Amino acid sequence: MSERAYRVIGSRPVRHDGADKVTGRAQFGADIRLPGLLHGHLLRSPYAHARIRRIDTRRAEALPGVLAVVTAADLPEVPDRLLELVEGTLPLSYAQANVLARRKVLYKGHAVAAVAAVNRHVAEEAASLIEVEYEPLPPVLDLLEAMREDAPLLHEDLRTREFGQPTGKLSNIAEHFRHALGDVEQGFAQAEVILEREFRTATVHQGYLEPQTATALWNQDGRVYVWTSTQGAFSAREAIAWVLDLPVSQVRVTPMEVGGAFGGKIRVYLEPVAALLSKKAGRPVKIVMPRRDVFEATGPTPATCIRVKMGARADGRITAAQIWMAYETGAFPSGQCGFGALCILAPYDIPNILIDGYDVVVNKPSTAPYRAPGATQAAFAAESVVDELAERLGLDPIEFRLKNAAREGTRRADGLKYPRIGCVEVLEAMKNHPHYRAPLEGAHRGRGVAMGYWFNIGWYSSCTISVNPDGTVNLVEGSVDLSGTRTSIAMQAAEALGLRADQVHPVVADTDSIGPTAVTGGSRTTFATGWAAWEAAQDVIRQMKERAALLWEVGPDQVEFEGGVFRAGERSLSFRELAERLEETGGPVIGRGTVNPSSAGGSFAGAIADVEVDPETGKVCLLRFTCVQDAGTAVHPGAVEGQMQGGSAQGIGWALNEEYLFDPQGVMLNSSLLDYREPTALDVPPIETLIVQAPEPDHPFGVRGVGEANIVPPPAAIANAIYRAIGVRLRRLPMKPSAVLEALWSKER
Amino acid sequence: MTGEKVRVRMKVNRQSVELLCEPRQSLLECLRDILGLTGAKEGCNDGNCGACAVILDGRLVNSCLVLAVEAEGSEIITIEGLARGAELDPIQRAFLEQGAVQCGFCTPGLILATKALLDRTPDPTEGEIRRRLANHLCRCTGYDKVVRAVRQAAAERREVRA
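^ inputs. structure came back:
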């Protein structure tokens, strides 16, 4: 569908870091080795909610092989202020308290103290010798109970913000916001069918395979060097500096290869602790999180309760939607309900909308983003109701969606007027897909569809490009590469410079070596850092035109560049030929590019799922699954497919298997990869992909980020498929065998 | 401060090595921390993710579940031992060409699992591939391109033999 012909964009080169990734040479966070390296271990709270009365570290300090012990007392005391973190605003005191608990522990696994020792075994043993006296408090574990007036309070200083203003009211409700479009009363009055449904979703984890890790050296000159597995070297630098009360330039973060993140590796957990231990020990300290701690003490993504009321006319037009949505934030108030609210009705043009959203603290780990944060839970609710409405109206579910589809000019619930978007294109592609048209026969089988949306973000990125005398270039970028963005960014530079992808050598740099670059998240990296690489390439071309002009004794504006060749009249030099002559024409050429787009084109994704339900066991088996997504322009179609398949598989796990199970005291019962059931190769079918290309209007190549929207539709698509298979609508995630059986039994009663 | 150390001799990637380790140290820990072979990854340390898989005497094992002292006298192949000189193994090449690598953390385990599978079953069905890979979690790819890579590698190996 893309109208422009590209040479590099749209091809599938082997990725630049490929050889390192298949030979074991790639250096992930835990792979770093430094002279004199010590190993750290954290002591964590056994209680979900308790006051810390006393910590005695003397026995740990006395253990041979121990070089340092730290607690929250080692964190600098600084006046509190509101931090602008990537995932939202958070008071500095809370950011510090999540790193090391100060007066209270707020979830099972909350870090209380840390030890550095000659090896991990000694560190573990020493941590077990630290004595902590707790005063246990009643834990607040349920979202709706936490919202009650008489609920025990997690924080003595948390006051609800309502409609963006502080209310002064002490409560577990951190935030209440509202979006209103039109008049819902009037909208419902026009409706002939009105449905009102409630949905619950469980806490889930990003489930990356590489546990959090951090290595820090508090150098004797006062600088702090950190090697870590993070989505953002610069956001990590900032967060570490804030927590440790240092100027940002005092901290250098070297981003290591990241073994999966999906939003979970933005916040810092271990980095400040490793730094404090290093400061005391005078040697570098490495900490690797045990898997159990990854579940219990990093940020899972929120459990939710969402109520959807939606009305439509008999002709199939949705007239009004009213949403009540509450999201857990875990122990600290930095929530994702706001993101969910931007996405919940995003695929539709609905004239009358009222959304009330709540972020609520509970005694669970502080939540973190997970791929299209907040959107998957929201779509599970809204897309289930849309499906039911279509059924009530006797309309095909895709036709019904097309009748109401958002397009250029449609207003989103928050008032944003869409630029060009690919919602209709995705729906049309689903409708025409062979999967949707294929017959599905057999008992207890059904097909469901759903839409998903993620708004994508712009934000700042920096790149430099230096020209090598052999006609290749080195591309230095600040974006951490989670899944192949070295290549998708290099390809954009190559396209602009008329080079092959393998003639661009991408390097992900540390925070001393490249300009500030925002986090790899929000599906922004191929979009924004690719744009910065394009800008840097334009700077290179401008400078090289000047060099050609010098050689040819013409004005720089008389030199043209196209297809990798500089020309002026009859004379021409290839990029390589001119690169060889830089020394004689003034020296090296380095281009730079920085961008800061305030917005990005959002991406829509759709899923078609075929399921078979075993009525004896309640197990849902996926027979066939197709993901359709708008990529704007697919830079590396293979990588785009990879994103679509990976996001779909995560959505499938969220739909059917994954959840945090807690005992009544708030202790997680399934904090291992055996009991927290991520999908295996046997749990997912081959995931079919279809890339739609509705170019983003501002980006030089029309790129839209594709990292996230694909996780959004699967739970709703599968729920809708289950309904068609067995005639019951499941409104709670995960739709595990026991839930399916209970639903079947209550239908029979 | 540390336990008494034990001498362990084994062959790692066709080279004889001798190391001193504590009896409580896993093979994974010794490969990574003593021998510097960090290609095997610690994803869970309890045998549930497969990221630490190595081939021990021809069998795929989770090296986090093997004590280094148990590996005395054994022959071990890690991901670092798969490429021959500057030449990638066909399995490694297939993973790259099929785009079966995203973050790359589970990749060493998956590649060694593929080798272990194809050494015994040169022409596996999709079901056999998925069953073998089910011992390895991959959170990035959704497994589709991994399965394709295994099929490509199998086909290439059969071609070489034919």
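Chain B has five helices and five strands. Residues 144-161 of chain B form the longest helix (18 residues).
thumbs up if we can close this ticket
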